[in-house]
Structure formats: structure tokens, C-alpha cells
Amino acid sequence: MTVLRLAWRNLIGAGIRTWLNVLVLSLSFVVIVWMQGFLEGMNRQVQDAMIATEYAGGQYWHEKYDPYDPFTLSDAHGELPPAIAELVRAGNAMPVLVVQGSIYSGGSMRPVMLRGIDPRQDIVNLPSAFLVQDSGAEELPLLIGSRMAKSAGLRQDDIITVQWRDAHGTFDAREARVVKVISTTVQSVDIGQVWLPLDRLRAMTDMAGQATLVTLRRGARPAVAPAGWTFHTPNDLLSDLRAMVKAKSGGTSIFYLILLFLAMLAIFDTQILSLFRRRKEMGTLMALGMTRGRVIELFTLEGGLHGVLAALVGAVYGIPFLAYTARTGIGMPKMMDSMGFAIGERLYSTYTPGLVLGTTVLVLIVTTIVSFLPTRRIAKLKPTDALRGRWT
To answer: From the centroid of its chain, how far is CA 292?
Structure first.
């Protein structure tokens, strides 16, 4: 306790030098936690949006379905096995048929993915009810996203021509009406995608009872994947996203290192200056019976207390600031929409106890180590030389 009291008194007695170091270190605390919180918030926000809009409780894929290889799509469909068909009948799963096609509008042709979906489904957050049509209507109802509408120059109630190729390789075409343009943050259900009633698409392609993938309701128990189908959990489907966020986290670590380096440079300089200016004090302490180890402990503790004070000062102004940004979020520039993240117009940060405590402990450990390094010279200091103001 004596060493702690001495360290605290010396630290406070240093005045403005101590508080400048504490301010710089507290800024590093707050900025690191703030940036980590936004990365964590982006990760959760994107995952929640993709699970709600596309993946739900997981997906069964036809064995030939590869979303990254459109050339295999013509063979990636099949009848539902009994185990999956039972899930669909119980309302715990919905089949989706994916077929390559083209749309003609304004004298131009555009390749698209025709996705058949049950208009009455409530498993994913897509307004498929707009696809419900009067039995006498001849035009094919289409649902498209706002990005798809913008790139194709389409608006609600526009009439376009849809072309597709059926299971026998025969091309066919039909007029269709854009019944709804939806706004979604999930680009994979928007860009290049055209949604239409599943039964109409099955009839058009002569693929009765067939599907390319089946989406499971969240919380429903998945059946064992039958032969010819594979089940992908939401974790599997989000693995690419996690890898992308992890790569971005690695990039921001360089920024954290720069911040920590600047703060630790200030602590290191302060320690060097203290050792130089307080040589006689060290000699007096050793002459009074304090061992070199205790003197090293005293100076290291003084440096380490900078980190404790920085955590307290950072909490004073950092907690209100972080709470405000977590509640209101920050607006995202429009360029973020083209980077493949389902973020939306605002990004909300997420701060977990592990994130705050982990950052605090890391900075305290680094501060203590940097404070200790200059004090190693005290181990070779002779009390008589120190009292004369000299180093051995």
C-alpha cells in the first residue's frame, strides 16, 4: 500500500503532464471501442437482414445447385423428397425454383434469375403476397427490388416481356407486369432477381413439383438431408460474410496499433523523463531502505496508473458518446450499397461487455509493459551515484 500511495501521489503531483497523457490514452480507448463496436454492429446487422430475408432457418440445396456457377443452373432442380415435402406441407419450409431467363424492356434485353416463390409464404421477409393474382389475369405478376428496377429502368405497373427455357430446352416468352418494386437491404434477393409465383414458374418450365432450394422456417427442426440434397445451416450460408468482416477487422487493426503506439510513446517519454529528473529521489528511497525492486515497482505502477486513469476519464465522456451512436447510428453513404453489405441507410454499433473489457485489459497490459521497460535501468543504479544525480 505504501508503494501505491507514493505512486498515486507522484502521479497526481506531475500535474498537467499526467492529464495530457491520460487524455491521449483515453482517446485511444474510446476510438478503439467505437470502431470495434461498429464492426460488430455491421456484422450483426447484415446477418440479421440476410437471415430474415433469405436464409431463415437454413436451406436445402439440390446437389447440382451452385449459386456462383449459373451454367449449372439448368440441371439444378428436382422433385422434393418425402422428408422435405413433409416439411413444406407442415408449413415449416418453402420451395424456391430458380431458372435462368431474360427480360425485354425499352428495346434492350437483360439476363435475370427467375425465382418462383409461394405468394402465401411467411418464412422469409419478402412481400410475396403482392404476387397473388386474379384467376383471370393473363399477365405474369413480377416482384423486383429497387436496385433491379433502377438498373433496368422499370417502375411499378410496367409491362415487360419475360423469356425462359423450359425443362426440355424449348424457349418461350410471355408478357408480365411489375406488380411491386420492393426496397430491401439484401442485394442477393434484388440485383438480377425477378420473383414470380412458384406454380406459374413450374407450369411455364414444365417442372411440376420441382424446386432448386428449400428454405426452412426459423426454429423448425431440419430433417436429415435426403440423397441428392444438402442442408446448409445459417452459419454455413453466412460463412463468406464472416470471412469478409474478419478481413476488414484485420485491416482496422493497423489503425488500432497506430493509436496505441502514439499513446504508448507518450507514456514511454514520460517514464524516461521521470527517471532522468528523479535520480536523487531514487537514491534517497534506496538510502532509506527501499530495494531496487520496490523502486522499479513504484515507477512501473506510476506508469500503469495512467491506464487506470485513462479508463476512468474515457468512461466519463466515452459512455454517453458510445450510447448515442448505438442509439442513433450513423448514415451510410450510397457507395456502401455497391459493396455487397446488407446494411441499409444507417449503421448501428453494438458494444458487448467482452469488447469493452477486452479492450480495457489489453490497453492496461500494454501500458504496464511500456512503463516497465525504462525502469530496468534502475536495477544497475547505485544509491551513492543516484544521490549525486548520476547514473552508474
So the answer is: 49
Residues 181, 187, 190, 191, Cα dihedral to 10°: 120
Cβ neighbourhood burial of 376 (10 Å; 0-12, 13-18, 19+):
exposed
The C-alpha atoms of residue 31 and residue 255 are separated, in whole angstroms, by: 10
Furthest C-alpha separation in the chain? 106
Question: Any idea how long the chain is?
Answer: 392
**Does position 326 have pLDDT exceeding 80, yes or no?**
yes
Q: β-strand 59-62 against 193-197: which pairing, if any?
A: unpaired
Q: What is the 3-state secondary structure (H, E, C) of 271-333?
A: HHHHHHHCHHHHHHHHHCCCCHHHHHHHHHHHHHHHHHHHHHHHHHHHHHHHHHHHHHCEECC
The span from the CA of 340 to the CA of 42, in Å, is 12
How far apart CA 259 and CA 350 sit, in angstroms, is 21
Determine the Cα–Cα distance for residues 117 and 114; give it in Å rounded to an integer: 10
* Burial class for 109, CB neighbours closer than 10 Å (0-12, 13-18, 19+): exposed
Beta bridge partners of 392: none
Give pTM, 2 decimals: 0.74
CA atoms within 13 A on the CB side of 372: 9
Q: Which of 190, 219, 183, 189 is nearest to 56 (CA)?
A: 219
How many other C-beta atoms can be found within 10 angstroms of the C-beta atom of residue 322?
19
Q: In 3-state terms, the chain is what percent helix, strand and coil (to 5)?
A: 55, 20, 25
- pLDDT tens, 9-37? 888 887 888 888 888 888 888 888 888 88
Rg (CA), the chain: 32
| Distance separating alpha carbons of residues 21 and 310, to the nearest angstrom | 8
Strands 108-117 and 93-105 turn out to be antiparallel
Write the burial class of residue 2 (CB in 10 Å: 0-12 exposed, 13-18 middle, 19+ buried).
Answer: exposed
- The pLDDT tens digits of the residues spanning 38-76 come to 888 888 888 898 999 999 999 999 999 998 888 888 889
Q: What is the pLDDT of residues 83-124, one digit of tens each?
A: 999 999 999 999 999 999 999 987 888 999 999 999 999 999
